[in-house]
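Known limitations

Files may contain more than one protein. Parsers should not assume a single record per file. Below, a two-record file is shown to illustrate correct handling: read the sequence, read the token line, then continue until end of file.
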Amino acid sequence: MSERSSWAAGLRGGWLITPAILSYYDVAFSQANFSSANLNGVSTVGSHTYNGWFLGTGLETALPFFGKGWFARIEYRYATYKAANISEVFGTGAVRDIMNVNPVVQTIRTELVYRF
């Protein structure tokens, strides 16, 4: 399964380590849609949307050598989603085994930001 789309709404709080470097933590409600998956070429599980939350931490720094308003950010997020029961469908159309799926996604992202 792979994550097709997600969104989150939450809070971020942190402190300035120096006047140009911000360290922060964030927490949020999150929702993600995961694609269907082919299991051993014999059966599939359908796509599904899950609700959950994430915790994250990161650093943001000003980039004065690019000009005023430019920042770089690096962030780690751990997201977990509420388990859901999903049916396994075989190529013949038969449905078997309801699987309990509980996705967990860990990401590291970097961003170049310009603030007006």
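...continuing to the second record:
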Amino acid sequence: MCGKERWVPVYSYKKYRYGGKCVKCAAIAKSIEDFKPLKHITKEGYVVVNLPRDDKFYGMINKATNSVLEHRLVMAKHLGRCLQPIEVVHHIDRDKTNNSIDNLELLNSWQHFLLTSMENKITELMIRVEQLEKENKVLKAQLR
């Protein structure tokens, strides 16, 4: 795999033990072969996935954790390319674990900021409307 040549005695079993590869290449091949994608949920509530080194989208991984956010991976696979750091994948229903492509929207960071701000304001207003409706019911009951 690495292209380096090495001397191996004819009687050496290592040639067969490592499949004709050097120790480092054999370890890499084994890790790719035995790779099982692991999923877990971060403390922020996002699903993260580990990727093998030979994956097309390996360039998107977080170097510190060696994993990628699943919603970004789903969008990248949908588009057929790696996402740029300024691109943000928004969850339409605000459920961070619902990573179906129907629930995801690709935005730039400014659009995402505006959209999230508007959604938060709408949520606050809906809560306030519910409070006012409850107060209205109480006041109507007192008038009777």
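Parsers that stop after the first record will miss the second one. For reference, the second record is described as follows. The CA atoms of residues 87 and 108 lie 5 Å apart.
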